[in-house]
Amino acid sequence: MSGDFQHIKSFFLMIVLCTLGELSIAQDMGPYILPFKNKPQDVSNSVRVESVQDFVDDFFKDYQNLELALLYEKQSLGGVNYTFQCRYGTYPIEQVLVKILLDFNNHPRLLQTTLPLLEEWNTIHFNSNESDENLCYILLDDTMKLVRKELGIQEEKDYYAHRFWINDEVYFENILKYHNDTTAYAKVFQPDPLTSANVLYGGTYQDALRFDTTALVIQNLNNTGNTTITANGINFSYDGLTFNVPTESYINNFSAPIIQQVFENIFLDGNGNILGFNTAITEDLSNYTTEIIIEDYNYPSLAQEQVWGELPVDFSGGSFNLVNADFIISEFSLPFTNPANSATDSFDFTRNLTEFEDVNAFYHLNNFKRYWESLGFTNLASEVILVDAHGNNGADNSFFTPTSPPRLVFGEGGVDDAEDADVIIHEYGHAISAFASPETNSGDERRALDEGFGDYLATTYSRQYDNFEANKVFSWDGHNEFWAGRISNSNKTKLDLSSNQNIYFNGEIWSAVLNDLYLDLGATVADQLAIEVMYYNMPNSSLTQAAFNLFLADTLLFNGVHTCSIFNILLERKFVEGTCNDFYSGVREYKDSNKPKLFNTYGFSYLNEGLVLELKEFSGEKVVVSLYDLKGQLLSESKIEEQVSILNYGDLAPGIYFLHIRTAGQNYPFKLVKN
Question: Where are the domains of the chain?
Answer without folding.
Answer: 5-142, 208-295, 301-572, 585-674
